[in-house]
Amino acid sequence: MVDVNAVNLATNVLLLGALYSLVAIGFTLIFGVGGVLNLAHGAVLSIGAYSAVAVVRATGSVPLAAVAAAAGAGLFSLAFYKGMIRYARESPVLVLILTLVMGLVIEQVVLVAFGGQALAVPSLLAGQTEVAGQRLSNNRVFVFALSWLLIGGLFYFVNRTKTGQAILATSMSEKGAALVGIEADRVYTYTWILAGVLAGLAGLFLASFQTATPLMGRTPLLLSFSIVVIGGLGSIRGSVIGAYLISFLDQVTVTLVSTRLAGVSALVVLVLVLLIKPEGLFGRELAEH
């Protein structure tokens, strides 16, 4: 029984760590490059999940639902940046209020359109697989693999492509990047779309083995904030490590103590990091001077 619980615990830590990484990387990209704390980022998960729900209802196709989750969330992020944030970037307080209000608006729109009940999203891959004597759904294994494929692709994109290098250059110095012909607004647009796509897919993945609800993005947003502070605001590598640290502590707390304490460990670690090492474990890789 102990071995079975250990396998379940390890599985949940690995899977949720990968999903939290997707959400936190988008959150930290927008902050690291543009200096924006996007409080609507959690609600973007629900846009992805409910876009998938709508497409599954209309077509019954899970692959099309995945495309809709990514496209719906990415297009929303693009429109939000181009329509509001771009004009308010110089006022951090106004941006903070706008993102907070937008997150609440999204939740209410989803609530009106789909109702407050939890909705099931079909598994991305049917069947089960046996690992260490424990049967795991293929969907969870598939979601874990896809999440790491996306994380690896993002690392390659940022570090090996010209657009990725432009994102890094802009995060270090907008003026310096402009001197070598990099247009900051275009880079900000890329980061918002990228963050939206990652959040939308994370929403679909999460809903595929749990459910979709209008408030499903709140806990991931709270955990993402803790993760990026722990890892270092603007640090992609720190976000991944922070996501696994938070996932491990949260799952150990929920499994061994009480499910009512979900998320508490993240807040405790957040407070400790702010007191001991406020710049986070890895500082800022994406930094604006």
TrEMBL record:
The keyword Transmembrane applies. GO terms for cellular component: plasma membrane. Its main location: membrane. GO terms for biological process: amino acid transport. It is a multi-pass membrane protein. It is found in: Cell membrane. Pfam families: BPD_transp_2. The chain crosses the membrane at residues 12-32, 62-81, 93-121, 141-159, 190-209, 221-246, 252-276. Keywords: Amino-acid transport, Cell membrane, Membrane, Transmembrane, Transmembrane helix, Transport. It comes from the Archaea. Belongs to the binding-protein-dependent transport system permease family. LivHM subfamily. PANTHER family: ABC TRANSPORTER PERMEASE PROTEIN (PTHR11795:SF450), BRANCHED-CHAIN AMINO ACID TRANSPORT SYSTEM PERMEASE PROTEIN LIVH (PTHR11795). This is Branched-chain amino acid ABC transporter permease. It comes from Halosegnis marinus. The lineage of its organism: Archaea, Methanobacteriati, Methanobacteriota, Stenosarchaea group, Halobacteria.
